[in-house]
What does this fold into?
Amino acid sequence: MSAPRRIVVTGATGFLGGALARHLAAARPWDRVLGLGRDAVRGRALQAQGVEFAALDLTDAAAVHRVLRGADIVVHAAALSSPWGRRADFVAANVDASEHVAEACVAHQVRRLVHISTPGIYHDGRSHRNIREDQPLPARAVNDYAATKLIAERRVLARCAAGGVAAIALRPRAIFGPGDSAILPRLADALRRGRLPRLGAEDCEVDLTYVDNAVDAIVLAMDASWRLAGRVYNISNGEPVRIWSVIDRLADALSLPRPQRRLPRPLVLALASAVEAGYRRLRPDREPPLLRYGIELLSVDMTLDIGRARTELGYRPRVGMDEALNRTLAELARKEPRR
It folds into this structure.
């Protein structure tokens, strides 16, 4: 057993941060785990599971400094993750908040900061397989989320390197699992509405990351050698899947019709561009029903090389993709409204 530590998890009322906080409270009862977030209801649920909770706005630099005083490890999982929104909101939530966390870690000499970044920074609308961490990035980010997350990652690592804090960044790809409200639930909603035509090639392959495996990767980064400070790691399940096979499996689990109608990808992309332009002009604060980014996620290959995480962190996804999908689909089927 290691010496007791004070571990702070930002974004603890979110999907990944909450899963991590609960895991740490259960697996390391000798450590003090403090979760930070804005959702008081979810915060109370965390407290019932043994996690200390504090409601906090990370854009308040003074408050961040106060709460990180005395921390040994900080996992920064908080972010505004959305394909649409006001750039100012993304800058505040992803750049400014991350800088406040990094500055507080340096000021209080936190031993380790694990920064959760995103492989969305690789996305350029084209197919890529086995993307490495050092792959050249697009000249222009796909959206404000990816753009601000890249700025945050670079600034956090630079500030921590200059300030003597051992920081590591993880880029987990498409985290899913029971309790997620983003990936499979959004696809399920599109299936229910009959708004999911088949796009692109049937063999389009993508990487996903089961939430328990993402938590394992974070724990490994928390405990990693100080010699790995400044390193960045791709994280996934290491088992690329055909996205349309997953969607068909989702439809079957929910007793919904599999998508049959096929539309030409260029036509749908052109339509999405027109819809986005209209929303930017007339309804900029509301997400359009059709986005180029969403279409590309379903029609271009996107897989990661996780060799660096395997070699340097000892990362081994312990929940295989088939079991991960079984668990997630079973939960979604339990929640499916009766028709």
